[in-house]
Write a structure and sequence with these properties.
Strand order of the largest sheet: 3-1-2-4-5-6-7-8-9
Structural class: alpha/beta
Number of helices: 6
Number of strands: 9
Radius of gyration: 16 Å
Shape: globular
Helix content: 25-40%
Largest sheet: 9 strands, mixed
């Protein structure tokens, strides 16, 4: 597998925010989102065997593991890695960009489905059939750049009854919209979504890698 980076940090997003977590960032992505903060993962990476990856993960001594990217599901070996981690009793999160099917991901893993809003310039690439494979433990994330994105996310959430299917997260895109504004919209409209801040950026800064 081509791995961009592996590191231990505080989980900065999702319902697991604040917990120590090992991150495996896979190299390669099929999308080019306008607000992407990991463009270095498009091409940068080192080929590692599954055994090498597992050995590195074990060395951290942390039970929570997130596989992210880039887009991790572009590499066919990812599904097997997820199974191996689950077999070793790790709690596995896999964050995917919503354009690739999640159907074959081990059901014991938590899928974080990052649905691309119009502001990303990639919303037409989404595979909305993924909503049919969501479990109650899974999470759907919308990165919001504007009021238009917010209303689009509300429409998609309502149309697909996402609130009853899984956890729904609304994230303000840094540099596009202030968290306070998004928080107020959620409160005013009584949306049962979690405001999802990237707390690792508040802790370590917005440009630091490996956190």
């Amino acid at each position: 597998m081509k791995i961009c980076e592996m590191f231990a940090s505080i989980q900065g997003e999702s319902s697991y925010a604040g917990l120590p977590c090992v991150f495996i960032r896979m190299a390669g992505c099929n999308l080019r989102c306008s607000y992407c903060d990991t463009t270095y993962a498009y091409d940068e990476g080192t080929e590692l065997s599954e055994d090498e990856i597992l050995k590195k993960i074990r060395s951290f001594g942390i039970n929570l593991v997130e596989i992210t990217g880039g887009e991790p599901l572009l590499q066919r070996e990812t599904s097997h890695l997820v199974k191996q981690l689950i077999n070793e009793k790790y709690k596995v999160l896999i964050e995917t960009n919503g354009s690739v099917s999640i159907k074959k991901i081990d059901k014991k893993a938590v899928v974080i489905l990052d649905v691309k809003t119009p502001g990303s310039k990639m919303s037409e690439k989404m595979d909305f059939s993924n909503f049919n494979h969501l479990k109650p433990a899974d999470e759907v994330k919308f990165v919001i750049t504007s009021r238009k994105d917010y209303e689009w996310a509300n429409e998609i959430t309502k149309k697909n009854d996402l609130i009853s299917k899984c956890h729904v997260l609304y994230s303000p895109a840094i540099g596009y919209i202030e968290p306070e504004k998004l928080a107020n919209w959620i409160i005013e409209d009584k949306i049962s979504a979690r405001l999802n801040l990237q707390i690792h950026k508040y802790i370590y800064g917005s440009d630091k890698r490996g956190v």
